[in-house]
Amino acid sequence: MRQALVAGAVALAIAGACGRSTPPGGSGGGGAGMGGCPQVGAEPLYTLVITTESAGPLPVDASLAVKWSAGEEPLFVLADDTTWHSLEDGSNLVCDVTAPLPEEVFELRCGLWTQGATEIEVTGTGYLPHLETLMPQTQEGCEEPIASEVVVVLVEEEAMPGR
Question: What is the mean pLDDT of the segment spanning 128-153?
């Protein structure tokens, strides 16, 4: 059974915590207790929470594309378990899904183990594409960005006037 679980995929941004967005085992050098900026290397820089405006299920073909300074991550497609990756696979895009996929998924959580500005595109049949450039959150006195949670709400195409 393939599992793509990340402990940090369910983590919320920790108030007062600064750290690197490197996966576990990455270089991390100290920082705990120094100026109120402990090392938080065991969680992604961004945790995406993807839902729909109607609170209904996500489209089965929902996909997530991620681009950042190191390049493009492999595309994640909800209905295609061959696109589900883990940190052990070397992926920087890890979504909290397990096979077999339930009939309906109402919320998808994905950890982005990127650094710096990160461009995301979320698409799915019947919904407007969601394009956004995520910028790292900072905290005064901390050298490294802090982890943050980003909520992406997909809007149905017919909900938009003039379309």
Answer: 94
